[in-house]
Amino acid sequence: MSPAKRIVICGGGAIGSAIAYYLSRRGALPIVVERHEVAGSASGKSGGFLALDWCRGSPLDRLARRSFALHAELAAELGNPWLYRRLETYAGHAAEGERPGGAGQRSWLSGSVAITGHLGSPQTTALVEPRAFTMGLMRAAEALGATLKRGTVEALVRSPSGAAVGVVLEGGETVEGDAVVIAMGPWSILAARWLPLPAVFGFKGHSLIFRTGDAIPAEALFLEYREASGEVLTPELFPRSDGTTWVCAISTTGPLPIDPAKVSPDDGAHARLEAMCRAISPALAAAPIVARQACFRPVTEDGLPLMGQVPSVDGAYVATGHSVWGMLNAPATGEAMAELILDGAARHVDLAPFAPARLPTLDPAQLHGTGR
After folding, report:
1. pTM (global) more than 0.90
2. How far is the C-alpha of 241 from the C-alpha of 357, rounded, in Å?
3. Alpha carbon distance, N-terminus to C-terminus of the chain
4. With 90 as the cut, is the pLDDT of residue 364 above it?
5. Is 181 helix (H, G, I), strand (E, B) or coil?
6. Do residues 293 and 208 make contact, with C-beta atoms less than 8 angstroms apart?
């Protein structure tokens, strides 16, 4: 019997944790290297919204449908510590300054909110608590033999033939493996210093978490909200089964800090978001805020994730750039990457649309001066 493969995974977000879990299920020994904390960035601060068929007509459709099914399976198999729940999903619109006019079309909304459509049912939309989901997958992977290691990846280790066989951490320690996976969200761009990778950018989002108890039922809302200035926000409201409600809006393209721990909100962003929430929902107006958050989602030039082998470097793989669908698509990404690494090809999802070679590689000179 051949020894189990050691796979070094750079990044402890939802994608890295899912890859580690599915590799460990196959008997491999993943080593996840995380510089900040598991679920410390977008994977712990996202909405956790899941949709079966919202990517139809796009290259993401098959990935999303497979992943939606895997979410239900994982919750059943692993005891659902991340509060997976199915829910109704609506669309609506409102404007700042409009009079509430009594009760709204939904029990928890003011009369100023007009519901304009039914976007999803419990059969097609669902929700997870993202930090618990990411940490839950990591713990499940560790129980199957995976290792979590704190550290900042500084360089790639190559064999005499040029294949990726490990990484060097800040301080000089080497972590050896049979393959290396880059799954560092928007910080994957730093790996372009030593791998031929396309650019990955960070898109900042702001969110609030309210303690709403049972005041809001299992109903998600996608809203268009016109501020008095005329600017239109597109907030998303997701009630979780732990009695909290997550609301996000106001996305920007500010600079990505090198250290994930130093992500900070834009001035005034949370105040704008809070004012809108208090105006559209009596339940939110009465609820305390338990978290004010900002995070960067990873995006690529064409809006599709990077998933596959790094061109011309044996043993090097990348999985990032999932944008707003990272939490949805994490399970199928983990499954597909595990199949690709261990079997040479993914069975359940066609990875061809996501191949890194479809996009031009980033010139490492553009990263000069980024430091650590």
Report:
1. yes
2. 41
3. 41
4. no
5. strand
6. yes
